[in-house]
Design goal:
The complex is a heterotetramer of chains A (about 170), B (about 650), C (about 500) and D (about 100).
Chain A lengths: L2 H25 L3 H21 L3 H28 L10 H23 L17 H10 L2 H21 L6
Chain B lengths: L3 H24 L5 H28 L15 E14 L4 E10 L2 H24 L6 H19 L4 H19 L6 H32 L4 H6 L1 H4 L2 E4 L2 E4 H16 L8 H4 L5 H10 L4 H8 L8 H22 L4 H25 L6 H28 L10 H4 L1 H15 L5 H15 L3 H26 L14 H16 L4 H8 L11 H23 L5 H7 L1 H8 L4 H48 L6 H19 L3
Antiparallel strand pairs in B: 1-2, 3-4
Helix pairs in contact in B: 1-2, 1-4, 2-3, 2-4, 3-4, 3-11, 3-15, 3-20, 4-5, 5-6, 6-9, 9-12, 11-15, 13-14, 13-19, 14-15, 14-18, 14-19, 15-17, 15-18, 15-20, 17-19, 17-20, 18-19, 19-22
Chain D lengths: L3 H21 L3 H26 L5 H31 L13
Classes of the chains: A mainly alpha (about 170), B mainly alpha (about 650), C mainly alpha (about 500), D mainly alpha (about 100).
Chain lengths: ~170, ~650, ~500, ~100
């Protein structure tokens, strides 16, 4: 089993796990199970990033996304649960059918487009591609400096807003 | 012979003096009745004197006053009132405009003299008649305004000036009829008079407007030279018609309004609401003859055959029609009003007959106008002093007035005889001239019509005499003879009514500027008219005095004709029905259409539209987060798919 | 600062002074505004006398305002301008005199009234299209506040409707003016709003304003496209048939002086605009559209008179009568002959005076009887003799009695319409004459119902304390009556001014 | 061999699942999580395009970095709002919260 079949196999495993975890995250009634399957999804996507040898992104994904955001969500769930909300919900059945119909319909379109697109069998040429934090850092600070700064302002604003929102005494 | 320029300057004074009186009275003496009446009468007398002087000079030199299309300029002095189109050039005139001024020609000079003199007499009469009336100052104000506009109309040399003063005369008749302001019937009668004449003036105005389009000129004399050019075919919208005949009928429509011909006569009997001097001046002598004057003035224009016959027949029919109604009237002024209508019918018939034949001479109709003014004014003033004496209009309450009002009765008798055409008196010469002309020129229908009307005239006047002078006085209180200022005009007018008829021959020579003469009336005319008058008086005497067949029996025998005559052939009701049901309904439709459709739909419609669309769009804001997300995401998904369709 | 900008700015400066005076000092407010309007009357008379007929544009004031766009402050007086300025000054003076009764917020009322009058002066005198439109808006906009605040009855609705419809009209006008501006630039390559240069250029460049415009694939001549925009845009203000409905409501709920100024002068702005811009610059468009608009104005005349017949509210009768009279003005413009255009300008002046008098009197009657419903009036001739005389005088002037100004104008318009070269105009003139009869009917019915007949005290509770007009109102009304009489008795004097003012328009129309 | 289409297919599926989740979930948290799934699908596609079409460029990766930070900010705010929501309405069910109805 040479090196390429291994990477193919790895891709399929990761793809299957991410689809499975995404489905369970959406259709689980219990929030905790849903949050946990979401973490699994994040990790499998990080794996895919690694497979495309983008280590910085995978790290970012794992650290910020899986570690930060989902922890925040879990914290939120527990706090709501603490304050008395029940931790499960019933799904909307009628919208399920409609949404399923629309998504399958649109998936069909997208797939037709993808499979008939101009470059079907572009291979993953691993040689010569490197994406290191140094390259990303440089481009962040010269080419995309403006959006970088706007982002920082955005985060500051979110900081203030969240603290203002959850301040004690807000009726 | 005074040359023309001084005559023209004098002519300016004739209408000028009453106007001056009006201005002075209006601005300075409106408060005091005494000064206004004396001043107005003084100025009126002055203007009458001047008009007699001009009349005398023209009467004595008819040859020099033959006005034709070439020399009308030096017989008139005028100023440009309204320059319509200065850039218009044509063969005979530079610049198309409306001129107002004074004009001397036998017809207008005769009318000036007649109007001025009768107006003076009536001014004197009304000093006495209006004694003690609070609005006396206002009355004399209107009288001088009326005489100014009447004299202005009479001395006009073009259609527009005539139309201008025509309307002013209509205004003065509105003001004078509605003189008793708090009497509702007076106000309605004034309104009715003005609106009915306004309907007729619509025809006049349309005629003038089309004349402006076809001929670009209003002067009578320059138009009379272009008769053949004007009788060409003209296309207005969908109708094509020869211009001149249609034009003369339209102009005659205006005349029908003012001179009370058949459909437009309903306002004249109601105009008796005004004080009696007004009825005497306006609705007997002067204004109502305006239509006949207009026919005479543009006689050369109308000289083209069949439409004059139509006019003649309308005149004849009105004469008979009015005479029949007069038989059943009990108000003395109403009887005289209907008799005026029938005499006007005579004059129009006279003009129509003369117009129809080739060598027509307008003098017959105009002479009747001349004489009629005198004896009809006399009759009205006499009636006025009778009313003044008996304090009622109704002849059934009067009786044996001869004993109380001596002079009034005698003058009233003279007037009646003149009206019925008893030979020596004025009426005979003029009225029978018309009947004779009808007989000579082959209008046998009109001839018979004329004789019947003559008989009816003498019948109803005799009936009025019997009611007023025979039997015992039926009213309350004792009537008294009127004061000198009222009886003096009666006497003067009585004298005129006797002698004015004898000048028939010279009148025709004077009027036609020495061209035409009217052959004198033969013995047959004398006999027929005497027979008719005697028949009329005899039958009236038999029925009303001796009661051989009492009037009640007759009315019982002919119930329906009596009822129809009583109701004046329902003409008032027809007019009222037309106005009320057709015009007011149409105007109601227009008003509601405007309010509901044009305003409602076009303007408020937009307002409704915005409200309705807002109400619909409001539904989309359900407030539920899910619907927003659902719509948002689904539409993005579908939108992305549409991108991939190509 | 020549006389023309003086006559335009005196009311505006007076308005500023009025605003600065303290609210309680009613006397000062009235004194300033009466003084200012008197100054404009004197000024307009002086200009009228000094105006030499045949001398083209006089008292010209021309300063470039925005060089790049070619906008100039260009005031000039021609024959029409001279006479219409006198009309505006007189109506303003009488309006100010008859609005002494305004108590609440008199300051703003008089200020707005003066600004409005200043705008109207500007319109009559400006020869630069941009300035023309600027003053046109200044004249139209204060109406909303004047009716909305000081009006009676459903004043908000009426003010809103009036302003919205007028603004719809001025939107159309703006489109047309800019189109003219642009097409002038296209042909001559020079950016200018100046009316005189445009009219002269029409002689030099034969195809000025003639090029074809592509609209949805159709090729339409510029003039044929733009003339309806101008005619309907200005027509909204001058009471053209489908857009006239603001006039009855607007006048019914406007205070006296406002409806005097509005019906008296502002409605003339519309017709004046059509002559100054429409006929002068787009003659072929006018020729093409003449018949269709003539039919509209014919409906205006007959329909307005008929509608006035069955109104019970006094102001509605007068409002519909001004719709009908403005129809005569518009008909005169559509007929495009020498008499008819002169007649329509004369009708503007005479109708301005008449409606001013009418609304002034209605103000007096309404001030005392507090009702405008004619069924509740009757027989008030004994208590109010002056009002009766004046109302009958105005009535007879409006039904076209000779000797008063209505007749001369109507005769000129009808005779002009009859001579129009287009086929159906004779028929239109004949039908328009019917309005003479209908006007007589509704005027006399109105006069009869209101003034004559028996005087019953119990019919209206204000009858007991009924008094006649006071001296200021009497002077205002008698000034208007004097003018109607002056123009009516000898119209040649006024018509010569108008003829001189219209010469360039006749030259463009090829008359 | 793993080609671009594989990643694109996977990314599309993830986005669809996320969309499905948004439609189906009644609670705010559920929605939040499905929203995050959509973000992951987008990240994957972005990276795939960068990796296969423009190997020398970094635009895809920069986009992923930005998306992640924005997702973080957005989740923080969403949770803060959710907590306030819960304090006021005693429920996090989205349908009960309909005060904004016209």
């Amino acid at each position: 089993m040479n090196e390429s079949t291994f990477s193919q196999l790895l891709f399929y495993v990761l793809a299957a796990s991410s689809i499975f975890s995404a489905l369970s995250a959406t259709f689980m009634k219990d929030f905790f199970k849903c949050a946990l399957s979401f973490i699994l999804l994040l990790l499998s996507v990080a794996g895919l990033f690694l497979q495309m040898n983008m280590p910085f992104l995978a790290a970012l994904q794992v650290l910020v996304y899986a570690g930060g955001i989902t922890v925040l969500i879990l914290f939120g769930i527990m706090m709501i649960y603490q304050m008395g909300a029940e931790n499960s919900e019933r799904l909307r059945s009628t919208e399920m059918i409609v949404a399923a119909g629309v998504s399958i319909f649109s998936l069909g379109f997208v797939f037709i487009k993808i499979f008939s697109s101009a470059y079907p069998n572009l291979q993953i040429n691993s040689v010569g591609f490197l994406s290191s934090p140094k390259i990303l850092g440089e481009s962040l600070l010269n080419q995309f400096l403006l959006s970088f700064d706007i982002l920082s302002v955005l985060l500051l604003a979110v900081l203030i807003a969240t603290s203002a929102l959850v301040r004690k005494g807000v009726k | 012979m005074i040359e023309l320029s001084t005559l023209l300057n004098l002519a300016w004074l004739v209408p000028g003096l009453p106007f001056l009186a009006f201005i002075i009275n209006f601005f300075f003496f409106r408060k005091s009745a005494w000064i206004t009446s004396r001043l107005a009468t003084l100025f009126m007398a002055g203007s009458a004197l001047i008009s007699w002087k001009i009349f005398y000079t023209v009467w004595t030199h008819p040859k020099d006053f033959l006005v034709t299309a070439q020399n009308w300029q030096d017989y008139s002095s005028y100023f440009e009132w309204l320059p319509l189109d200065p850039s218009y050039q044509s063969a005979i005139q530079k610049g198309f405009s409306i001129n107002i001024g004074v004009f001397l020609d036998p017809l207008s000079v005769m009318m000036l003299a007649m109007v001025a003199s009768i107006a003076t007499l009536i001014h004197i009469y009304s000093i006495g008649y209006m004694h003690g009336d609070p609005g006396k100052a206002r009355f004399f104000l209107y009288l001088s305004l009326f005489t100014f506009s009447m004299l202005g109309m009479v001395s006009s040399n073009n259609f527009m000036q005539m139309f201008i003063f025509w309307e002013l005369v209509g205004l003065c008749s509105y003001l004078l009829i509605g003189f008793y302001i708090n009497k509702k019937s007076a106000g309605d009668a004034a309104k009715k008079a003005f609106i009915v004449t306004r309907f007729a003036d619509f025809g006049f105005m349309v005629g003038l407007v089309l004349l402006a389009w076809v001929a670009h000129d209003f002067n009578f004399f320059t138009l009379s030279t272009r008769v053949d050019e004007l009788s060409g075919i003209v296309k207005v919208g969908l109708f094509t018609f020869p211009f001149l005949p249609m034009f003369s009928l339209m102009i005659f429509m205006g005349a029908m309004g003012k001179s009370g011909q058949f459909p437009f006569h309903i306002w004249l009997p109601d105009a008796m609401e005004g004080p009696t001097p007004v009825s005497a001046l306006i609705h007997a002598a002067t204004m109502v003859t305006a239509g006949v004057f207009m026919l005479a003035r543009c006689f050369p224009l109308f000289h083209s055959g069949n439409e004059m016959e139509i006019i003649a027949y309308i005149g004849g029919f009105t004469a008979l029609f009015a005479a029949t109604i007069a038989i059943v009237q009990f108000d003395v002024k109403k009887i005289l009003a209907y008799s005026t209508l029938s005499q006007l019918g005579y004059m129009v018939m006279g003009m129509g007959i003369e117009g129809a034949i080739v060598a027509g001479n307008p003098a017959t109709g105009v002479f009747h106008l001349f004489t009629h003014a005198f004896f009809k004014a006399l009759l009205f003033l006499g009636a006025g002093s009778l009313i003044h004496a008996a304090h009622t209009n109704d002849i059934r309450q009067m009786g044996n007035m001869g004993k109380y009002a001596k002079i009034t009765s005698i003058t009233f008798l003279i007037g009646t005889l003149a009206l019925c055409g008893f030979p020596p008196f004025a009426g005979f010469y003029s009225k029978d001239a018309i009947i004779h002309a009808a007989h000579v020129n082959g209008f046998h229908g009109l001839y018979i019509l004329g004789t019947i009307t003559a008989f009816l005239t003498s019948f109803y006047m005799a009936r009025c005499l019997i009611y007023v002078f025979c039997g015992e006085y039926r009213g309350e209180g004792t009537p008294h003879e009127s004061s000198f200022t009222m009886t003096f005009p009666l006497v003067v007018l009585a004298i005129c009514s006797i002698f004015v008829g004898w000048v028939q021959q010279d009148f025709t020579i004077f009027l036609s500027g020495g061209q035409m003469t009217m052959e004198p009336l033969g013995m047959s005319a004398y006999i027929t008219s005497i027979v008719i008058v005697i028949l009329g008086f005899g039958s009236a005497y038999a029925i009303f005095h001796k009661k051989v067949i009492s009037p009640e029996a007759i009315s019982k025998a002919f119930v329906f004709p009596h009822f129809v005559l009583e109701k004046k052939y329902f003409m008032d009701e027809i007019w009222d029905y037309c106005i009320r049901n057709i015009l007011l309904v149409v105007s109601w439709i227009c008003a509601t259409f405007d309010k509901k459709i044009v305003d409602g739909v076009l303007v408020d419609g937009w307002d409704y539209l915005t409200h309705a669309s807002a109400r619909v769009l409001k539904q989309t804001q359900t407030g539920v987060l899910h619907t927003y997300i659902f719509v948002g995401l689904t539409s993005t998904v579908i939108f992305i798919c549409t991108l991939f369709i190509n | 600062m020549g006389p023309l900008s003086l006559i335009v700015l005196v009311p505006v400066i007076a308005a500023i002074f009025v605003i600065c005076t303290p609210k309680e000092n009613k006397f000062a407010i009235r004194a300033i505004s009466t003084g200012a309007s008197f100054v404009t009357v004197v000024l307009s008379f002086l200009l009228l006398i000094k105006f030499q007929k045949g001398g083209g544009l006089q008292f010209v004031e021309q300063f470039t305002w925005v060089k790049e766009l070619g906008i100039e402050y260009y005031l000039a007086m021609d024959g029409m301008g001279a006479v219409l300025c006198v009309l505006n000054a007189v109506i303003l003076f009488c309006g100010v005199l008859s609005s002494y009764g305004i108590e609440d917020r008199a300051k703003e009322y008089f200020a707005l009234l003066l600004i409005l009058a200043g705008g109207v002066f500007g319109v009559f005198l400006s020869y630069d299209l941009f300035m023309f439109f600027l003053f046109y808006e200044i004249a139209v906009l204060p109406m909303y506040l004047l009716i909305g605040v000081w009006g009676t009855g459903q004043k908000e609705y009426a003010a809103m409707k009036l302003t919205l419809m007028l603004l719809f009209g001025s939107a159309l006008i703006l489109v047309a003016l800019l189109a003219i501006y642009w097409s002038f630039f296209n042909t001559t390559g020079e950016l200018s709003f100046n009316l005189v240069t445009m009219m002269d250029a029409m002689k030099i460049y034969p195809n000025l304003f003639q090029e074809d415009v592509m609209i949805f694939g159709y090729k339409i001549n510029f003039q044929i496209l733009m003339y309806p925009a101008i005619f309907m845009g200005f027509g909204v203000l001058s009471g053209l048939f489908p857009f006239h409905t603001w006039s009855p409501d607007g006048h019914a709920s406007a205070p006296t002086a406002v409806s005097m100024l509005h019906a008296g002068v502002l409605m003339k702005l519309g017709a004046f605009g059509i002559i100054r811009v429409g006929l002068a610059l787009l003659p072929d468009g006018a020729q093409y559209w003449a018949l269709t608009f003539a039919l509209l104005t014919l409906i205006n005349i007959v329909y307005g008179a008929l509608a006035a017949m069955s109104q019970t509210d006094l102001k509605y009768i007068v409002a519909y009568s001004s719709v009908s009279h403005m129809g005569i003005v518009n008909l005169g413009i559509c007929a495009m002959t020498v008499e008819s255009i002169q007649g329509s300008v004369l009708q503007m002046i005479s109708h301005g005076m008449m409606t001013g008098l009418f609304f002034g009197l209605i103000g007096i009657i309404y001030g005392r009887l507090h009702t405008r419903d004619i069924t509740k009036m009757g027989g008030i001739v004994k208590r109010m003799p002056f009002a009766t005389v004046a109302f009958t005088f105005a009535g007879f002037a409006s039904l076209g009695l000779p000797g008063l100004s209505g007749f001369a104008a109507e005769v000129m318009v009808f005779m002009g319409t009859v001579q129009a070269k287009l086929p159906a105009f004779q028929w239109i003139a004949v039908v328009a004459c019917v309005s003479v009869v209908f006007t007589a009917i509704y005027i006399l019915r109105g006069v009869q119902k209101i003034f004559y007949g028996p005087f019953e005290i119990e019919k209206n509770k204000y009858f007991a304390t009924l008094t006649d007009a006071n001296t200021t109102e009497k002077t205002a009304m008698s000034i208007l009556m004097a003018f109607i009489l002056l123009i009516g008795v000898y119209p040649a004097y006024t018509v010569r001014f108008i003829y001189d003012g219209l010469l360039p328009v006749f030259r463009n129309l090829g008359l | 061999m793993i080609t671009l289409t594989h990643y694109l297919v996977l990314g599309a599926i993830l986005i669809c699942i996320g969309y499905l989740g948004m439609m189906v979930r009644k609670s705010a948290i559920g929605m939040l999580i499905s929203l995050e799934i959509i973000f992951n699908g987008i990240n994957l596609t972005a990276v795939a395009f960068n990796r296969f079409l423009h190997p020398d460029g970094v635009i895809g990766q920069i986009m992923v970095i930005f998306i992640i930070t924005v997702a973080a900010a957005e989740t923080a705010i969403a949770l803060a709002i959710m907590i306030n929501l819960f304090k006021k309405f005693k429920t996090i069910d989205v349908d009960e919260v309909n005060l904004m109805k016209w």
